[in-house]
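pinging the channel bc i need a second pair of eyes. not urgent but kinda urgent?? the chain im working w is below, pasted from the shared doc
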Amino acid sequence: MKIQFELNGAPTAVEATPMARLLDVLREDLRLTGTKEGCGEGECGACTVLIDGRAINSCLVPVVQVRGAKVQTVEGLARDGRLHPVQQAFVDHGGAQCGICTPGFVVAAAELLARDPQPDAITIREALAGNLCRCTGYQKIIDSVARTLSGDEEAAR
């Protein structure tokens, strides 16, 4: 079945089985490998994408559900060759470890900042609670998001 939707700002059509996971279609059919599979059960958040502006685990979404929707992956956050501020903060402040969870954290943080441009540390932690990292204690991730806002690492504590 042909599924049409907007992907990272561009009209997209893909031939796929309607119940194929959006995650698999993105990675295998559309070659957007930034979105990662961690658990495949919606528990870790590594596969987080934005669907109509909302952070969603793409491993739980049949591709047919995005017909006519706007889907944004971690690749779609950058604009005109410049990283999204959250992506840049992760680079600058050590928010990335092995990289499996990083795209999901970045997408979830971008969604948070789109709806709340000045979240406090508790709001940041709550917004990222659906994302798991097996490499770190989370502080550098939280610091990276907070530094996106203020440039002040202490804002995350």
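so Residues 102-115 form the longest helix (14 residues). and Residues 151-157 have pLDDT under 50 and may be disordered. — does that match what u expected or am i reading it wrong
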